[in-house]
Each structure stands twice: as C-alpha cells, then as structure tokens.
Amino acid sequence: MTPPLLLRYASDVSPEWLTQVLSASGALSPGHRVEGLSMTPVGTGQMADTTRFTLTYDEEGAGPASVVGKFASADEQSRATGLALRAYEIEVRF
User: Fold this and answer.
1) What is the dihedral of CA 66, 37, 63, 9, to 10 degrees?
2) Could you say which residues of the chain have pLDDT below 70?
C-alpha cells in the first residue's frame, strides 16, 4: 500500500484521503470509509494552521469521531519563519 500523500492545506483534506490515512493507521474499521467531514480551526496559528475534522462514516462508530490535523501556515511569512527556524522539522521529529 502506498503511503497517503502529505497535504499542504486543511482545505485539501477529503473524505477519500482521510479514509486512506485512517485505514493505514488501523483507526478505521476494515471495509469502511469516511463519508463526510466538517472543519473547525483550532488555536491561533503563529507558524501552523491546526484544524479539527469532525467525521461521519458509512457506518456509525467505524472510526474516531474527530481528528486534528496540523499544517504549515497558509501565511507565507509565517511559513518562511517556521522553515528558517526548522520549527516544522523539529516538531515532526519530536
């Protein structure tokens, strides 16, 4: 199985992508899929954009009710600062 692609923006997240990610991690019951999602920003986002995804499935309880995704900032200046300080690399390695 090919690893899911990394996404640049929260708006790029789709039910299909989440189905692939949750299936690969074992968090989604085999044979089920994410059917829908809603997004809510979390936090203030100095160098990153964090979003809570509330999920619906083809069968209730097939996976987690929500997940949180963290993305490099959509603001180019904030993103450049995060890259220059290696903040993204340090956080991922943590």
Assistant:
1) -70
2) 1
